[in-house]
Design goal:
homodimer; about 575 residues; mainly alpha; six-stranded mixed β-sheet; two-stranded antiparallel ribbon; 25 helices; about 60% helix; about 5% strand
């Protein structure tokens, strides 16, 4: 039963559900639904898909996540970065605006769902750790810039194409003379209005004496207001006839049952992008879920999250959606609005289904410029270059990784950017181990503690040289230790009779390093110097135990550096 | 002057050269020359080149290495593994047996020389550390098997092709019905004779009472005897007319001045193989040089070796040779024969030049089967599968790397094999850091030393939990620490009031790990548990110093774990 419960977290909260929780969940659902209607339409447009796809992608996935997910506040659906990745992935394979483009989006969601589910069942959630925080932060910032740039064409009412900032920028400049006045007016006003709603409205309302909850609710409803106002304006002034692009006919129906395109060629082409979308979506979603869970002392099980998101994406694939994940903004809204359980998500799904059934005829005249404005203002919150300053101050290699991620994402596109970020951060981490920090140590007076002679006031003995090796010894750095030790000895060849390698930071000695130590032992023995080890850890000692090296070692293995000092340090 | 001397090691030994050294060097040169004549011809054949190329590749390179190299005993010239790599590299681009094949070999030598020289001038010799010892051992063993297999066709007198053991084996089986009887007789006899010379002759002669030096000399001359005997036999019985393949016409001249083919297309195709040849040749050569130098307390400067080998390869490129490096067998013979200085190499070059001028007409009737037999017996000494057993006993990941290298070299060829070996060994090393060893530690009674509670009899206090993290903390493993610590605390949530992270083995904390530690600190604070650090190393502390983390830390940073114990351990 417990095992069963692990895979169905709904059993955990479902049986304690009461009227109080119901009331709170319903309130949250209304607020989130109002927020999601314009956002879902907008993100579908960003992904290059018909607007209704965004609504469909918010219904079944929310319900499935409520059954399988572990977060009580996470709101699953289309999000900006995954929509951009979807557009980039499918755009390389299929012509945008065609029926096969929509079918490919289903395939991408199905692949992504299968990958997430597979990783979850295999309990491989830890793989997401490969995206270092700065790389993710840099990637999301650069994606935000790219997304905002990609929406400018809708605000200006022109055609523009491009996967990178440079391509997009050049294309926009080239088409700037065609800018459509009425569209720019609507789009520009919507951007200004939404930006004001986001930054200035809430403080203003509070200052006017409105209760914070109501002020918050009005702020959340800002995008809906912009949608209603610009739609009414477009209808009233018949702006469609004057060339303002509108959403147009949207089918008035519940999410349809759909089958993804299973052609092997398409699957091959979309597999790598699907992996990328899965991992980035997962990392983003889990970090949101963890942040919110920590506030209520709840726990997030990363492997179960993979299963929840996998189910959500499979749901999207079979109900006319496209890849989804847990979004930051909507989850925070859901949480702040007081959502107690995943049932809030189910009510949101219900609200969106009602909207799909009843409201779709009304959005015929909704200008695309308004949706673009919604996206632009929403993604501005993703853009945060402060990670550059923070890493610059803390660590050069983190800074290089984040800078490369940002520059490559902007110049070559999202896939190259994130691949470079991941590759580079692993490479930089490995590079640091090539020339390890090796400190000559002495005793902190009056203690049994040994520290770097150059940083602390310590006692040393001329006949005893102790080196603390601050890295695992393996093929890439074993020779470095040998060279360094021999160089150090040549400075002081006469005095030193005992060398102790203090291994407190040596977490592994591989076969190559073992051979190097054997050679070093023989070499030192020839020079009349004995080689000792101290503070060798259990796992390393287990491996050394049956080797020639330990049998041939001219010196001893001391449990602690203090034992070595007691035995050897006095003799000088 | 000293700087000048660094690049011309000849200035080091040249000025002290005397008659005694001259005598010893001359003796060594005669022995090595006798050994090199058949070997040079044979390795050229292995590389798919005309036999004289092998002689030419032994003359200028030896002289240039004598000027620029640091080893006093290293004998530079064609070697088995590099010849195989040459055949594999050029065979993919040019039709074997053509003039452009010979020109491509010059290009390969020139590229290889330029790469080695460049690495040496940039002092990048440490890059060779990337080949772990087991990977090299596995690669050389597999190459030995491949080389021996590739020569069987000459011994059987049939045609056979293939880059992998399977292809070669299938091709040989397919052509086995065409086996040429007289060729097989000569080849088989030569293999048997040479094998006896290598393994049984020296002990036999010693037992017969010959002085060891003379016995050694006769043994070294074995291949020359096989060459003379089979050549005479072929000439006497006119076996060429009966279909025994012979070396044929070899130009009677000093090494010609040649210009490599500089076509950009060829350079592009050969660049990666040239990198591979350079690095493998360098690693092999340096390990031989180091072994021999250690016996005489001489030092090898890896960067200067790169320059020496680079010059040797450039020399080969302009005098009709092909890629060369320091060979194990010939260097050991040179050393054992008493070579004192690189002048021994110069005399060897002189001997080979004389051979090229005078002896070449005599080898018209030398059967190719004899050369193949020379190669087969020579490479048998490279084949040593004991590395599999040694790594199996010591370390699983080393074993996997060596096994993969051997299997992939045999099944896919030399380039795939060594690339897989290098990639895999780095990957396996990194993988180990994902789930670091984390030990709960307590105090070894009566000392200030702290060890794993599961391995040692130690003292602990219920209110104090100390974890020693045996790995640098970075993005790939920071979450693992967090999960593990929280799980451990949930077992014992009431008692623990203080958590100490003992950082003696933490060589780095990257930005992602720093953020994780910050979150962990806040989380523990909420639980009423204080977080402390101990034994943080200098370089890590330098980076932490100005961070929020250290300001927000609920506990303290202790210089030693003993200080932490003294402050916190008693309170429980």
């Amino acid at each position: 039963m417990d095992h069963f419960k692990r895979y169905f977290p709904i059993l955990d909260w479902g049986r304690d559900y009461d009227r109080l929780a119901l009331g709170e969940d319903l309130t949250a659902a209304v607020i989130v639904t109002l927020m999601l209607i314009p956002q879902s339409l907008a993100y579908a447009m960003l992904a290059g898909l018909p607007p209704e796809t965004g609504l469909y992608a918010s219904i079944a996935p929310i319900l499935l996540y409520a059954v399988f997910g572990t977060s009580r506040a996470l709101a699953v659906g289309p999000v900006a970065v995954v929509s951009l990745l979807t557009a980039s992935a499918i755009g390389q394979v299929v012509e945008p605006g065609t029926a096969s483009y929509v079918a490919a989006a289903l395939t991408l969601a199905a692949l992504s769902g299968a990958i997430l589910l597979g990783l979850g069942l295999l309990r491989l959630g830890f793989l997401a750790n490969f995206l270092s925080h700065p790389v993710i932060a840099g990637f999301i910032t650069a994606s935000g810039v790219l997304i905002a740039a990609s929406q400018l064409k809708h605000v200006m009412g022109v055609e523009a194409e491009g996967h990178s900032l440079i391509e997009l920028g050049l294309s926009l400049v080239q088409h700037a003379p065609d800018t459509h006045g009425p569209t720019l007016l609507i789009g520009g006003a919507a951007v200004a209005f939404l930006y004001f709603v986001r930054t200035g409205l809430n403080p203003l309302l509070t200052r006017l004496g409105l209760p914070p909850r109501l002020a918050g609710f009005i702020t959340k409803a800002g995008p809906v207001f912009a949608v209603i106002a610009t739609t009414a304006l477009t209808w009233g002034l018949d702006l469609e006839a004057r060339g303002v692009a509108v959403v147009g006919v949207v089918p008035q129906t519940l999410p349809p049952l759909t089958a993804p395109d299973w052609s092997p060629e398409l699957i091959r082409a979309l597999f790598i992008p699907a992996v990328l979308i899965s991992i980035i979506g997962f990392v983003e979603s889990v970090s949101v879920a963890k942040t919110l869970a920590a506030k209520k002392r709840q726990r997030i099980d990363a492997d179960q999250e993979l299963i929840g998101l996998g189910a959500a994406n499979l749901g999207a694939a079979f109900t006319g959606g496209y890849p989804v994940t847990g979004g930051f903004a909507r989850s925070v809204v859901n949480f702040d609005a007081g959502a107690r359980t995943p049932a809030a998500g189910a009510f949101t799904a219900l609200g969106l289904a009602l909207a799909a059934l009843t409201l779709t005829p009304l959005i015929y005249f909704l200008p695309k410029a308004t949706l673009a404005a919604t996206i632009i203002v929403a993604v501005l919150s993703l853009v945060d270059f402060s990670i550059l300053r923070a890493t610059w101050r803390y660590s050069t290699s983190d800074f290089i990784a984040v800078l490369a991620t940002i520059l490559l994402t902007l110049s070559l596109g999202v896939e190259a950017g994130v691949a470079a970020g991941v590759g580079l951060s692993i490479l930089l981490h490995v590079t640091k181990t090539f020339k390890p920090h090796i400190a000559e140590v002495g005793r902190v007076p009056g203690t049994e503690h040994f520290r770097n002679i150059h940083r602390h006031q310590v006692e040393t003995t001329p006949s005893l040289l102790t080196l603390r090796i601050d890295e695992s010894l393996y093929f890439a750095n074993a020779n470095f230790l040998e060279d360094m030790l021999l160089k150090r000895l040549s400075q002081d060849a006469e005095a030193v009779r005992n060398v102790v390698l203090m291994c407190s930071a040596v977490n592994e000695i591989d076969y190559s390093a073992l051979e190097t130590l054997e050679a070093l032992n023989a070499r030192l023995e020839d020079m009349g110097v004995r080689l000792h080890l101290s503070e060798v850890k259990g796992p390393v000692m287990d491996k050394l135990e049956h080797t020639h090296f330990l049998r041939d070692l001219s010196g001893e293995v001391f449990l602690s550096q203090h034992d070595a000092w007691a035995a050897l340090g006095r003799s000088g």
